[in-house]
Amino acid sequence: MAITLPGKVFFVGAGPGDPGLLTVKAAKILQSADVVVADRLVGEDIIAEYVNASTQVIAVGKQGGSGASKPQEEINKMLVKLAKRHASVVRLKGGDVTIFSNILDELAALVAANIPYELVPGITAVSGAAAYAGIPLTARNHSTGVRILTYYQTAAISNEAWQELAKFEDTLVFYMSGSTLHSIVSKLLQAGAEPTMPFAVVEQATTPHQHVHLFTLEEFILRQRDAQFTSPSLVIMGRVAGLYPQFSWLPNSGDRSAYFTPLQGQGQRLLAGQKL
Ligand code: SAH
């Protein structure tokens, strides 16, 4: 069969970790991919289960500014180059493709090069974490909505915005904020948050290493300010976090080692058992 080039780039959400949390559509697209460009937060189990052994997998993981990772500009160029050679290129991202995923730069590069693409949603980390921790995110009488936030770049939230967030009418979810948690809690308390407001930190949600920690704002500042969390971790703050002890159904894992391990090499097929 003649292949028309350039091919198409499929941005596919791999979900938060559990290989059972990919969509059927994602699984089908992965099975017929010619090449897969995967993020760090895509576990090797997903590659082993859904990607054919003959398909090239390129790991371009980023790890919170440290370690080996491809600069964004190189990833953009790589996608364009691959689409000129292959019919089906999958850009596989952890969680959902539209939430904290750098997709904007990659889309812009494809548009500029006239490469066709599709976006395939995935289960974002907070949906996975909330479900596997038994926390109903918008429980009636507990919260009026959910805010998806990050405090990775510390200037990103203004003082007025903190005042608003500190009312806790909405559930606050912080991505990429494990190392700034202390500042988040301080900002909220300074902005008038109730000191007894509960929050959960969900480490490695939906993986066999999932571990949930429950705190109140004041307890964290007084006794846990130096707590370290295994990456990736997600923060769910607000009254709904107080429902965790009552409705959790998955015991904490005793294993707090990293489930998602940094990539070892690039441009190579990952063999079964090899780390991504
Ligand atoms: N596109 C992804 C988010 C990528 S940003 C999504 O939709 O989920 C990376 C951040 O996502 C991490 O720092 C962490 O806060 C969160 N995250 C991703 N996977 C996670 C997991 N399995 N458990 C807890 N947090 C996770």
Salient structural properties:
9 helices; disordered C terminus; 5-stranded mixed sheet; 2 domains; elongated; 276 residues; binds S-adenosyl-L-homocysteine; Methyltransferase, Cobalt-precorrin-4 Transmethylase, Domain 2; Cobalt-precorrin-4 Transmethylase, domain 1; 10 strands
> Regarding quaternary structure, how should these chains be classified?
single chain
Overall SS class: alpha/beta
Radius of gyration (Å): 20 Å
Indicate the CATH class of the largest domain.
Answer: Alpha Beta
The major sheet is characterized as:
5 strands, parallel
Can you name the CATH architecture of the largest domain?
2-Layer Sandwich
Overall geometric form = elongated
The secondary-structure element order is: EHEHEHEHEHEHEHEEHEH
Number of separate helices: 9
Number of strands: 10
Low-confidence stretches: 263-268, 270-276
Portion in helices: 25-40%
Beta-strand proportion: 15-25%
CATH level 3 topology of the largest domain: Methyltransferase, Cobalt-precorrin-4 Transmethylase, Domain 2
> Within the largest sheet, what's the order of strands?
3-2-4-1-5
Q: Give the total of domains.
A: 2
What does this structure look like?
- The structure is a single chain.
- By secondary structure, the chain is of the alpha/beta class.
- The chain folds into 2 domains: 8-123, 3-Layer(aba) Sandwich (Cobalt-precorrin-4 Transmethylase, domain 1); 126-247, Tetrapyrrole methylase, C-terminal domain (Methyltransferase, Cobalt-precorrin-4 Transmethylase, Domain 2, 2-Layer Sandwich), CATH 3.30.950.
- It contains 9 helices and 10 strands.
- The chain has helices at 24-31, 44-50, 72-85, 103-112, 125-133, 159-165, 181-190, 217-223, 244-247; strands at residues 8-13, 35-38, 56-59, 88-93, 117-120, 146-150, 171-175, 198-203, 211-216, 233-237.
- The strands form 2 sheets. Strands 3-2-4-1-5 form a 5-stranded parallel β-sheet, sandwiched between helices. A 5-stranded mixed β-sheet has the order 6-7-10-8-9.
- β2, α2 and β3 form a beta-alpha-beta unit.
- The two termini are 33 Å apart.
- The model is unreliable at 263-268 and 270-276 (pLDDT under 50).
- S-adenosyl-L-homocysteine (SAH) binds at residues 16-17, 41, 93-96, 99-101, 124-125, 129, 175-176, 202, 204-207, 232-234.
